[in-house]
Amino acid sequence: MTGPVLEHLGEVRLELGAARDAPREGHWRQGKAGDGIVWMALDRPDSGTNTISKAVLLELSEQLDQLEQNPPEALVLRSAKPKGFAAGADIDEFTGMDPEEIEEMLREGHRILDRLGDLPCPTIAVVHGEALGGGFELALACDWRIAVEGAAFGFPEVQLGLHPGLGGTYRLTGLIDQVEAMQLMLTGKKAHTKKAARLGIADVVTEERHVAAAARACADGEVERRGGGLRGGLKSGALKFSRTRKLAARQMRSKTEKEAPQAHYPAPHALIDLWEEHGDDRSAMQEAELQSFARLVATETCQNLVRVFRLRRALKKRAEGEDGIAHVHVVGAGEMGAEIGAWAAMRGKTETLSDLDLDALGKAVKTAEGVCGGAHLGAAETRDALDRMMPDPNGYGVRRADLVIEAVPEKADLKTKIYKGICKDMKPDAILATNTSSLLLARLSEAVEDKARFAGLHFFNPVSKMQLVEVVRTKATSDSTTQRLAAFCGVIDKLPAPVRDYPGFLVNRMLTPYLLEAMVLLDEGVQKEVVDRAALRFGMPMGPVTLADWVGLDICLDVADGLKDELEKPVPEVPDWMRDMVEEGHTGKKAGRGFYDWSDGRPDPGEGDAGSEDLTDRLILPMLDACMECLRLNVAEDEDEVDGAMIFATGFAPFRGGPMHYARARGHDEVRDRLQELSESYGPRFVPDEGWSRDG
Amino acid sequence: MSRDIFLVDGARTPFLKARGKPGPFTPVDLAVQCGRPLLARLPLTAEMIDLVILGCVNVIADEMNPARVAALRLGLGEDQVAFTVQINCGSGMQSIDTACRYIREGRHELVLAGGTEALSHAPVVLREEAVEWYAEMARAENQVERAKHVRDLRPDFFQPVIGLERGLTDPITELNMGQTAEVLAHRFGIDRKTADAYAMDSHHRLARAQDEGWLKGEIEPMFSRDGEAYDRDDGVRPDNDMDSLAKLKPAFEKPYGKVTPGNSSQVTDGASWVVVASGEAVERHGLTPIARIVDSEWAALDPSVMGLAPVLAAAPIARRQGLGVEDIDLWEINEAFAAQVLACRAAWQDAEFCRAVLGLDDAFGEIDRGRLNVDGGAIALGHPVGTSGNRIVLHLVNALRRLGKRRGIATECIGGGQGGAMLLEVV
């Protein structure tokens, strides 16, 4: 609520103790109060977010010089940024450094945090918002951690192909249950306030208004430390012995291998090695952590994952600005419509969802509750989200909406009929967007009155998991419409990829050859598991046969037929037996049966023969070729957008940095030559795009 | 009355029969379910509504002042003043009447007035001795004291008292509502067969209204979290006949009583809202009113004959407005019990009664069954106590408009010995 009373009262100011009015020196503000407690507030200039940079640590070191000589009663460390504690190390600092340099820099950092940990006075970290990576490590170097309600702690390093490098590996395993500590570092998941307290990361959980009192209590030794760690329970005790650790490490390895195979993702495996070997020897683990981290920074995986991080940042940048959208009306309560509605409502939009079928609307409410649960919303937040999403069989929402999203089945005449019905009732500045994945917008727009306010807003299934949304413009779509839609994506926490109206747009244009080539392979008698394994070996998150089932064979068919009619390039022929499967209702996951049996959840193609390199190239290279075609025809703006779109819409092997990045790594000439070879063996669908030669 | 007051629109939820366990919606859930589409279909913004009044009898512990909770959940804004009113079975009409008085006073222009009740959520109450036992247990200072205290535990502490049963019993006369209907049946000579015939008719009339689509627009469908859609009053029994009704045993005074589950209103969950506006608000916001609220009245009498209160509440309106029985085109008398509605009819036809009690010169007259509860009533669709008064006003207006009639009275009896009545005219 943002009424006049709270507006007048203003934001709750962070308790900075004696540092409140202290001037900023470098990245820190420091002050000592009458009660003898020194407060140090991290306050990076020119940014709303703190990172743990080299400068931050060096300046901390200077402060430590004084604190060591003249120890205060206690030291309180916290962030002066309302947003949170600290986001982690400054990734950009690592770029271009060689391993020795990195190791030296880390060694210096370790020395400083060790000095902080060794101060004779109580040291207290106050954490609000997120303490990630290096920020978490700084907090871990303190004696106490006070978590302000809403705080979260985590080590996301693994997502960048790294593990903690500033002492996190031994400090966290030394503080809390070792297996829990390893879980946090291996998954990169955050421990939110409650969990952080349960694990013993946070010693105190309180509200901002009680921070000073809580810090005082810690300083006075009135607060018991919660960390169990090596001192803790039986299980942790047993892990002091290398044999028990070996056993636990073996389990971690096999689980990690499934989700992040060592060949593609070395970091989690290096972390397990580290712990297995040195889990009972702090200083050995410290030294090993340094070296391992420096090695990992140099890996291609790490560099490519850092690239993925930047690609996300770039897409997010496209989503900045005001959307001017308060009320969203979704037409069609099918699987996609229901999830889009639920997601938008969860992110604060007023939402109406229309469908003639009351049962579909009922199911949509259940879906929405599931989406809220999946996002860990509390009871009151879930209630509010569901209250904001109104099933609307009579379509009252059309007149009130700032954005209407059409998500009905992929039938052009049905869609145009709906447009004709609602356009006259829409507000004059409201946008009409279609979630079509297979129909050309140019044709659909013929039924739309104001074509400048018509565009595509193509979500991917499942909406709650897939971050990308294609914002599709026709020749007539206005800039303000695409800008508002991109901003809308930002508001609802999705990544927009602006694309031009084109058969399959960007993502499906790239994905369809991959899926259809898999069908051709099946037709040739290759086992479906072999096809899927070939793709998994390359690093795709899901083989193409499984993916076809996942997306729905009927939808694949729609997209394939659409593409075949619209594209100049030949696409693989859809086998008749696939049409028969759809006819018979074996449409994949949603039907419980497609190529695989889905009744027990996601199928596993298992281990074994993954086919020849030829087979992998037949699946992967046509995707690269389609990317080149889209770039040449300006369907997408640049290689970064294409790579980001593919990674965030399809999970395209992130450690390879995206399809175009992979093409560059492999060499455009080689890609072209390989395609040429394949075309000679398997047919003209592999003929390389003319973009390859031009771009060289 | 100085200011014209209008009913602009209204909607209710389907009424869901309580089936032995808490239904899918709390009182506020119900109010939100029908309030959302009502607000969405009107050309109004949240700022235009300047007061929310909601009738609710059985407020649940999580939703104190359900009016305010509903207003916030409906997105009417943190500055939305909202209060809950309670006069037992007349609460849903009391909210409309209170709105009228605030508007007439000139302090408000556009009021959301409703009623909600989830009788399936009526609390299970602990016996008083059990509550005391728990309290002492909590005060026990150590294990020994606690152990001693456990010895005082009696098995009947765990026998809950159903709050609903207590709520439907008048504390002054210690008669439950069904017994007050037995009293009226006795005093006005209503026999079992007549009561059953009335009840059967109620079901048939509601079933016809459903089939003909006459409730479209009045009912907005609702949707539960477990994925169910509800769009019909589910207590109706279209195939109800005299034989099956005759088989039912008396519910309140066994074995000779005449009031059975078949000729009583059902225990039900549901909510209803109407939008009440001043003439100025209608003009300013370009609204299309559906009726004018002309007059209202509340009356009270001995709780043991509470069912007769509609007669007392409607009479002063008729007198003030100079209306005879023929001038009222339609009546909605809330069907708490068939015998009770029939006793009201009998009293209006009774010259002695009308002279002695109502101060009329003669009998008020016979209310034609063709003008009374034309689409059935609480016997068929249920009686969520805080809601019914609102529903009968809304349905009266909808029925008048459908039948091309002009004037109607909605009235209900109220447990505890009161009654409310409201006169409306189609515009």
Key descriptive features of the protein:
heterodimer; A: 696 residues; alpha/beta; 2-enoyl-CoA Hydratase, Chain A, domain 1; Rossmann fold; N-(1-d-carboxylethyl)-l-norvaline Dehydrogenase, domain 2; 3 domains; eight-stranded mixed sheet; seven-stranded mixed sheet; globular; B: 427 residues; alpha+beta; Peroxisomal Thiolase, Chain A, domain 1; two-stranded antiparallel ribbon; 15 helices
Radius of gyration of chain A (Å): 28 Å
Tally of discrete structural domains of chain B? 2
How many structural units, i.e. domains of chain A? Answer: 3
Low-confidence stretches of chain A: 229-233
Give the largest interface.
A-B, 26 and 20 residues
Proportion of beta-strand residues of chain A: 5-15%
Number of contiguous helices of chain B: 15
- Give the name of the CATH superfamily of the largest domain in chain A: 2-enoyl-CoA Hydratase, Chain A, domain 1
Largest sheet of chain A: 8 strands, mixed
Mean pLDDT of chain B: 94
CATH class of the largest domain in chain B: Alpha Beta
What would your notes on this structure say?
- Chain B: The active site is at residues 89, 383, 413.
- Chain B: GO terms for molecular function: 3-oxoadipyl-CoA thiolase activity.
- The complex is a heterodimer of chains A (696) and B (427).
- Chain A folds into 3 domains: 2-298, 2-enoyl-CoA Hydratase, Chain A, domain 1, CATH 3.90.226.10; 320-493, Rossmann fold (3-Layer(aba) Sandwich); 507-695, N-(1-d-carboxylethyl)-l-norvaline Dehydrogenase, domain 2.
- Chain A is α/β, with parallel strands linked by helices and 696 residues long.
- In chain A, the strands form 3 sheets. Chain A has an 8-stranded mixed sheet, sandwiched between helices.
- Chain A is globular, with a radius of gyration of 28 Å.
- In chain A, α12 (266-278) runs antiparallel to α13 (282-297), α15 crosses α16 and α16 packs antiparallel against α17 (379-388).
- Chain B is α+β, with helices and mostly antiparallel strands.
- Chain B has 2 domains: 5-123 and 267-291, 3-Layer(aba) Sandwich (Peroxisomal Thiolase, Chain A, domain 1); 177-215 and 295-422, Peroxisomal Thiolase, Chain A, domain 1, CATH 3.40.47.10.
- Chain B contains 15 helices and 14 strands.
- In chain B, strands 1, 2, 3, 4, 5, 10, 11, 12, 13 and 14 form a 10-stranded mixed sheet that branches. A two-stranded antiparallel sheet of chain B has the order 6-7.
- In chain B, β13 and β14 form a beta hairpin.
- In chain B, α3 packs across α15 (385-402).
- Chain B is globular.
- The mean pLDDT of chain B is 94.
- Chain A binds chain B through residues 1, 3, 350, 352, 358-359, 361-366, 369, 383-384, 386-388, 390-394, 396-397, 400, and chain B through 32, 36-37, 40-41, 73-75, 77-79, 221, 223-229, 231.
